[in-house]
Amino acid sequence: MGIVSPFANPARAQVVPGVEIDLRETLEKGLKVRIDRERRFLHQVLHLVKREIFRRDLVLAIYQKARRRHRRFPFVYFRTMMTIIAEKRGVELQY
């Protein structure tokens, strides 16, 4: 397994040259998602990106901020920020 540079574009980060990591993998690994409850939350976010309720670049910006803010537990900050944004848009994210 390779290491992804913190300076790499997270939308197109590469572990091995020529092998791109998709958004789900980027978020799951970068946010240190460990339990099923966190995976279900992430799945909801990805579904909203697919439906274009959340823009991909917004999710990636929050992902990057969460990683800077809480290096050890970035998912907590990501979940909090995504929930706030979802509420402002009239969407419910369950955790």
Keywords:
about 100 residues, mainly alpha, 4 helices, about 5% strand, globular
Question: Mean pLDDT, nearest integer?
Answer: 85
Ends distance? 30 Å
The poorly predicted ranges are: none
- List SSEs in N-to-C order: EEHHHH
What structural class do helix, strand and pairing data support?
Answer: mainly alpha
Q: How many discrete domains?
A: 1
Helix content: 40-55%
Count the DSSP helices.
Answer: 4
Q: Describe the biggest sheet?
A: 2 strands, antiparallel
The total strand number stands at 2
Q: Please list the strands of the largest sheet in the order they lie side by side.
A: 1-2
Overall form? globular
CA-based gyration radius: 13 Å
Strand content: 5-15%
Account of the 3D structure:
The protein is mainly alpha-helical and 95 residues long. It has one domain. Helices cover 55% and strands 5% of the residues. The protein has four helices and two strands, in the order ββαααα. The protein has helices at residues 23-30, 36-50, 56-69, 74-88; strands at residues 14-16, 19-20. A two-stranded antiparallel sheet has the order 1-2. Helix 1 runs antiparallel to helix 2 (36-50) and helix 3 runs antiparallel to helix 4. It is globular and about 30 Å long. The N and C termini lie far apart (30 Å).
